[in-house]
Amino acid sequence: MPILRFEKKPDFLPYKQAVAAVGQCALMGLYENYFHRYGQIIGQVLMTKGDSLSSKRYLHMKGTLSSLLELGIVPIINENDAVSVDEIKIGDNDTLSAIVASICEADLLIILSDIEGMYSEDPKNNPKAELIHEVPQFTRELFKIAGSAGTARGTGGMYTKMQAVEICAHSGIDTVIANSHTKNIIYKLMNGERLGTYFIADNVHPQLKRRKIIIGSEIKGKILIDQGCYNALINKGSSLLPVGIIDVIGTFEDGDTVSVYFGEKEIARGISHYTSHDIQRMKGFHTEELDKILGEPAPYNTVIHRDNLLIMY
Fold first, then answer.
1. What are phi and psi of 267, to 5 degrees?
2. Higher model confidence: residue 151 or residue 3?
3. CA spacing 20 to 30 A to 249: which of 23, 81, 210, 243?
4. SMART domains from the entry (predicted)?
5. Mean of the per-residue pLDDT values for the chain?
6. Degrees (nearest 5) of the Cα angle 156, 161, 164?
7. Taking 50 as the threshold, does the pLDDT of residue 154 lie above it?
């Protein structure tokens, strides 16, 4: 932190946030320079803890990341330390990476560090400690092996990596912890080389991933659908489109969790892209008609995307 003439990371919160604001610019400058050499466009995404706890903000974050990837843009993701405070911070990049992996429903999270992986004991204290190549199932016992550690410049250690592994394990995402100094480490891992520690995730069905986001949310309204829409949701795994909606009950905002009913039976829950008022206007219409109905370009083609829809049986 020589630019701001700090010899160490400051403790005073406003100074910490000021350092973060300066650091974000410097960091993105480095990434821009490196990726430019390969003709790759990057985009900055700054997250806070609330982005993963609020269903509305979760929905927007998921949409942003999905769109960036769809456009071939590499998202550079960091916590927004310039405005976050300790009480509502994610806290470390290990946990942040796991949250992002969960939001994106990734297949694999690779955490690169200055260590080879997870050892049976702390190798600094016991030179005979053995590298654990594979962990077939996550258990809380791993935290005892991990201990706790951090660095002067950042936060984290093996303990926070285990927190990240736990998040991914319960989301059905495998995790690898490996040494960033190993040449071509990502290529080697993707080619199946036995490097680092591989943590095998729980066998989680995609519907159960969504359950964690949707089930705990307050239901703000109901959407009633017709037979054709019911068949599409249940038999084809489709998104909920306005053409199959018969009626809307209750008042809710975009990003709220709603129930989907066919007749008298609740068949699904999901996070709505639109307000109840907008859905009332667009119900029964085809997607290509939405711009005209809303009087402006429709931000979404679906009322509830299938990735944010939980079938209830």
1. -110, -15
2. 3
3. 210
4. PUA
5. 85
6. 115
7. no
pLDDT value at residue 155: 40
Here the tokens at position 179 are 């040494």
Strand order in the sheet with 174-179: 108-113, 174-179, 197-199, 134-135
User: In angstroms, how far is the first alpha carbon of the chain from the final one?
Assistant: 54
Rg (CA), the chain: 23
Chain length of the chain: 313
- 91-204: in CATH 3.40.1160.10: yes
In sequence order, the 6+-apart residues with CB closer than 8 A to the CB of 58 are 51, 52, 103, 213, 271
Task: Label residue 205 by pLDDT band (50, 70, 90).
Answer: low
> What is the pLDDT, as a whole number, of residue 153?
39
Residue ranges per structural domain of the chain: 1-85, 91-204, 217-311
Q: Which is the CATH superfamily of the domain at 217-311? A: PUA domain (2.30.130.10)
Residue 212 CA to residue 116 CA, distance in Å, equals 32
Q: What angle do CA 224, 236, 241 make, to 5 degrees?
A: 40
| pLDDT beyond 80 at 118 | yes
- Helical spans, DSSP H, in 71-201: 93-104, 141-146, 158-170, 185-190
